[in-house]
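re: ur question from earlier - yeah i can do the single chain one, its not a big deal. heres the input i used so u can compare w yours
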Amino acid sequence: MKFLSQLKVYVLALMVTCTVLISGCGQDDKATSSEPKGTIHIAYQYGIGYAPAMIAKEKGYLEQLLPDVAITWQLMNSGSTINAATIAGDIDFALMGTAPFLIGIDKGVPYKLFTGMSTYMPTGLVCNDPEIKSLSDFTAEDRIAVVSYGSIQHILLAMGADKYLGDPHALDTNIIGMSNPEGFATVLAGNSEAKAQLASVHYYLRLVEHGYHDIMPLDQVFMAEPTLLLGAISTETLEAHPEYLEAMRQALEQGRTFLREHPEEAAKILAEIEGTTPEQMSSYLSYPTLKFTEQTQGIFALAQFMAKAGFISKAPTSFADFATTNLDQSN
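and the output i got, formated as tokens:
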């Protein structure tokens, strides 16, 4: 009887152990199956020129299209920072200014253009000093806020300096690097640390609303509706995961559609992100020439100026030099 009792205890213990092991195996299998099958790192910058991407991020469009992929969105201050991160292999999609992208292509950053983001963002050089009425009024001590050296803001300032001062680099020593929000806050406060900002929408429109004057509107120095922001994909990601590119295209198009079909809700989403009221944001989004489109315009003209001014060694001559094969080539 003692032997039978011991046998029963042994059998019971064995059954419990097997149950635990089986349960544990099931949990491991479940955990393994829920692990992401890939990762996507997206870099983007400040401002509603990136509105289709911002809407896509907030609505989770890309995550819905690629449910088994871990997706991270990283807000970065400048295109030069994005270029460095792309070279390091940390970025799959770079949403950035056209000028730093062209600098990146010139320096061999491994990415390709796949979409435009927006055209003719309201842009200009807004000043808080009433004594400064033109580019020639800036003294050596007066600072102009741009995102960074080689940013699209810097290139537009160089275009103005070339046109009105005869030297694209005449104001290079005046520039001070500030993110769009930082430059906006500095100029808005009347701070002498920066008396002017080459500001992009919506920072430009907010400064004008506060009564500051624009001494160099964009259309005085460049074409009517240029593509100032665009999207690029790393060549490694493009080769290894072409499905990621297709999903990103779809997600951005969903963002554009949402902006068109649900303008009030889109304004609320973007106002919360950018720290404005929905009413203000609605007015910014309805600016007559602001368009959110995948089409690209003015890239070659911008590149030619940058090459002439020495920002890049040479201007590309065809989309094949820097773009994916299915880019909407309306340039």
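The two ends are 93 Å apart (CA to CA). not sure if urs matches, ping me
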